[in-house]
Amino acid sequence: MKKLTLTLTAAVLASTLFTGCAPLLIGGAMVGGVAVATDRRTSGTQIEDETIEVKAAARIREQLGDRVHINVNSYNRVALITGEARNEADQAAVERIVGGVENVSKVLNEVAVTMHSSLSTRSNDVVIKSKVKAQLIDARDLHSNAFYVVVERGEVFLMGRVTEREAARATEIARQVGGVKKVVRAFEIISEEELAQTLPKK
Question: Which of 56, 84, 105, 127 is deepest in the core (most CB within 10 A)?
């Protein structure tokens, strides 16, 4: 568990270096200070999502070990699982494990039944993710913090509470990034009226 915590902390630190956000430690979960204020989830939900990711990863490791290579990303209590399992039984087991984690409302199982991805593939995914996030930040007509980007084997998964207009625009941007093989929309679509209610009052 200690090793997992250190890994997650390092990942979050890398993310905050990229976005320029000062990290905030709440209840053991580190969250970007500026991102917390502009995220369309409540601060409580953000912490729940962090907890879901940590618990799910720990339980998968305990029950399946290195038989699988799995990444769990939670947004607004919807858990997206990506990675590789060597057979369908393990693929189903991963979904069952994640679905059993407290506060998970829905599981999106995008685990491929194949051999584990290589280190070079995973490194390339990190590069693609950085490029996609950079393009979203550069898009003046989007709030980049509304999007949660996951990349697995060149496939980009986009999550977030966004309008149909925002979803279409972000999908278009991601598809134009070099190295992207496929873009999968995993959004929670909200209306323009709902969006207006989430934005800070001027």
Answer: 56
Judge whether residue 19 has pLDDT over 70.
no
Q: Which residue has the tokens 């720990």?
A: 58
Q: Tell which of 72, 91, 113 closes a domain.
A: 113
Domain end marker among 83, 113, 143 = 113
Which helix (H) or strand (E) covers residue 169, if one does?
helix 164-175
Long-range contacts of 35-38 (CB under 8 A, 24+ apart): 35/145, 38/143, 38/145, 38/146
**From its phi and psi, is residue 71 left (phi > 0), alpha (psi between -120 and 50) or beta?**
beta
Q: What's the pLDDT tens digit per position in 163-191?
A: 999 999 999 999 999 999 999 999 999 99
Q: Are residues 59 and 84 in the same domain?
A: yes
Predicted structure pTM score = 0.79
